[in-house]
C-alpha cells in the first residue's frame, strides 16, 4: 500500500516542481534581473569595473537585493509612473543607443496605434501611470462636437468606427450622420416629408429626443394653454405652412357652443383675445367701454345680469334703468 501511495504521489510532486520552475522563470524575475528572453546583454563598456556593485557572486543574471540606481541623479532623467517600475532592459537593450530613441519622444518606444491621426504628443491624452486617456470629455469639448447630455455616455466607436483599436478618424458632427435611422422613424410629424433632415438641435436637445422643444415663431407664440400640445393637434396632415393664426380657425366650435352669454347670437367678435387669454377660457378679461366703466360692486356681476336676452348694444346707461326698484 505504501508503495502504491508513493507511486501515486511522485507525478504530483514532479508536476508541482515543474510549475514552480515555470513561475520562477516568468513572473518572479526582478525588474533589474536579466532573463534570456530579454535578448542579449547590453554592452557594459561604460559601466564601473567593480561588478560587485550590481551582481551577486554566484550568478551573472542575479542582481544584488540592495542594488539601487538613482536614475535622475545619474542620468538627469526622472522615471515616473509606470516607467519607474519598468525593467531596465525595456529601454537599455541591444536595439541601439537609448538616446536615439529618447529623442523621438513617446514614439521612440511606443507604437502609434492612432496612425498619426492624433498627433505625436502622447501626453496630450495619456499620463505616465497607465495608457488610459485622461479627461476625454474635457478634451472633446475643444472639437467641433462638444459632448453634452446623452452624448457623454456613448461609446467612442459609435461615432468613430475603429476606435476599439485606437483609430479615431474624424467624424462628421452633423446630427444626421449618426441619427439617420431616428430621422426615418420620425413620422409624427413626418420629418422627411417636411424636409426636416438636418439641424436636429432646432427642436431636440442632446439630453433626450422627447419631448421636442421647437421654438414657435414670434408671430404665434405658444403660451400657457397653447403649449404642451402635439404638433399634429394644430398641424393636421403634416401641414406646417400657410396656417391661419385667427382664433376661430381652431376654436370656432367653442365659440359656437358658448351660451352664457351666447357669443354667436350676440355677434361677438371672432377675435377671442378681446376677452380671453391663453391662460384660461373660463375667466374673460373684457374691458367695458369707457362710457360705462365697471367699478366697485359692478365687477362681480355676470354679463347676463345686465345684458338680458343677449342684448349687448343700445342699452341705457342711467342708474335708474337698472336700479329703479332699489330707488322706489
Keywords, separated by commas or semicolons:
328 residues; mainly alpha; two-stranded antiparallel sheet; 2 strands; 23% helix; rod-shaped; disordered N terminus
How much of the residues is beta strand, in percent? under 5%
- The helix/strand order is HEEHHHHHHHHH
Quaternary assembly: single chain
Helical run tally: 10
Low-pLDDT stretches: 1-28
**Span of the ends, CA to CA:** 136 Å
SS content category: mainly alpha
**Order of adjacent strands in the largest pleated sheet:** 1-2
Question: What general outline do the C-alpha atoms trace?
Answer: rod-shaped
Average of pLDDT: 80
Helix content: 10-25%
The total count of strands amounts to 2
Largest sheet: 2 strands, antiparallel
The radius of gyration over CA amounts to 43 Å
Structural write-up:
This protein has 328 residues and is an all-alpha fold. Helix content is 23%, strand content 2%. The protein is built from ten helices and two strands; from the N terminus they run H-E-E-H-H-H-H-H-H-H-H-H. It has helices spanning 2-26, 71-75, 98-102, 136-140, 180-185, 231-234, 248-257, 263-266, 303-306, 320-327, and strands at 55-56, 59-63. It has a two-stranded antiparallel ribbon. Strand 1 (55-56) and strand 2 (59-63) form a beta hairpin. The radius of gyration is 43 Å and the shape is rod-shaped. Residues 1-28 have low confidence and may be disordered.
Amino acid at each position: 500500500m505504501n508503495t502504491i501511495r508513493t507511486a501515486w504521489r511522485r507525478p504530483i510532486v514532479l508536476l508541482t516542481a515543474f510549475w514552480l520552475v515555470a513561475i520562477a522563470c516568468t513572473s518572479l524575475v526582478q525588474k533589474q534581473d536579466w532573463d534570456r528572453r530579454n535578448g542579449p546583454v547590453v554592452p557594459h563598456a561604460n559601466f564601473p569595473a567593480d561588478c560587485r556593485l550590481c551582481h551577486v557572486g554566484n550568478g551573472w543574471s542575479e542582481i544584488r537585493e540592495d542594488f539601487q540606481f538613482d536614475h535622475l541623479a545619474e542620468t538627469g532623467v526622472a522615471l515616473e509612473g509606470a516607467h519607474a517600475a519598468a525593467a531596465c532592459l525595456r529601454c537599455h537593450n541591444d536595439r541601439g543607443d537609448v538616446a536615439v530613441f529618447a529623442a523621438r519622444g513617446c514614439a521612440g518606444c511606443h507604437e502609434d496605434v492612432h496612425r498619426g491621426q492624433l498627433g505625436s504628443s502622447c501626453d496630450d491624452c495619456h499620463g505616465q501611470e497607465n495608457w488610459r486617456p485622461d479627461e476625454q470629455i474635457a478634451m472633446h469639448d475643444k472639437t467641433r462636437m462638444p459632448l453634452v447630455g446623452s452624448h457623454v455616455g456613448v461609446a467612442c466607436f459609435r461615432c468613430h468606427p475603429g476606435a476599439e483599436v485606437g483609430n479615431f478618424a474624424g467624424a462628421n458632427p452633423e446630427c444626421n450622420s449618426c441619427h439617420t435611422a431616428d430621422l426615418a422613424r420620425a413620422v409624427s410629424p413626418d420629418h422627411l416629408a417636411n424636409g426636416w433632415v438636418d439641424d436636429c438641435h432646432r427642436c431636440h436637445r442632446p439630453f433626450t429626443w422627447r419631448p421636442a422643444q421647437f421654438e414657435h415663431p414670434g408671430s404665434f407664440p405658444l403660451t400657457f394653454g397653447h403649449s404642451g400640445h402635439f404638433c399634429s393637434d394644430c398641424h393636421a396632415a403634416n401641414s406646417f405652412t400657410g396656417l391661419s393664426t385667427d382664433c376661430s380657425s381652431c376654436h370656432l366650435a367653442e365659440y359656437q357652443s358658448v351660451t352664457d352669454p351666447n357669443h354667436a347670437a350676440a355677434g361677438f367678435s371672432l377675435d377671442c383675445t378681446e376677452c380671453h387669454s391663453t391662460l384660461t377660457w373660463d375667466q374673460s378679461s373684457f374691458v367695458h367701454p369707457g362710457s360705462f366703466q365697471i367699478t366697485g360692486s359692478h365687477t362681480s356681476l355676470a354679463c347676463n345680469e345686465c345684458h338680458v336676452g343677449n342684448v349687448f348694444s343700445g342699452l341705457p346707461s342711467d342708474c335708474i334703468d337698472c336700479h329703479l326698484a332699489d330707488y322706489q
